[in-house]
Known about the structure:
Layout: H1 5-31, E1 62-67, E2 70-78, E3 81-83, E4 86-89, E5 93-101, E6 106-109, E7 116-119, E8 125-131, E9 135-140, E10 153-158
Parallel strand pairs: 2-5, 4-10
Antiparallel strand pairs: 1-2, 2-3, 5-8, 6-7, 9-10
The protein binds dinuclear copper ion.
Keywords: Copper, Membrane, Metal-binding, Transmembrane, Transmembrane helix
Protein name: Cytochrome aa3 subunit 2
InterPro entries: Ba3_CcO_II_C (IPR034214), CcO_II-like_C (IPR002429), Copper_CuA (IPR001505), Cupredoxin (IPR008972), NosZ/Cyto_c_oxidase_sub2 (IPR051403)
Amino acid sequence: MHIHRLEKIWLTFGIIMLFVFLLVLGVSAFAMGMQPPANYCGDYQSVDSTRLSETPPFDKPQLRKIGDNEYEAVMTAFAFGYSPNQLEVPAGATVHFVVTSKDVVHGFAIPGTNVNMMVLPGEVNQTDHTFAQPGEYLVLCNEYCGVAHELMQTKIIVK
Ligand code: CUA
């Protein structure tokens, strides 16, 4: 089989680059200890996504008051929705979202805010937001997750 000289150069370049990328990834992960980003508590948490129904706090997803106008929202994302289905907090509330997925990769985005997370099965994903203005906030899945992806949403009502 005849391979053109330029094709040979390009193939060699591609294969070398593949190994360079794998080397960079390997060194940063194993030698430099790089990990997925830590949460707001400063630690990285994982969870067995197949046993969520028996793993606190995800066995009972809920909104919990943890301080003066401060809440913790433990939520699970699944095809195609979120649990709990709707949250209600007073205006000015700071909500710490603690979210994981029951099945595949989902999104957790609140348009008009800085909240935009990927929700990964097996990982606990966290962010927080202070809802200064009253209103209805839409929570959307922005990672394609299946046939009803575009219907996957929930609401946060700020009174
Ligand atoms: Cu869940 Cu798209």
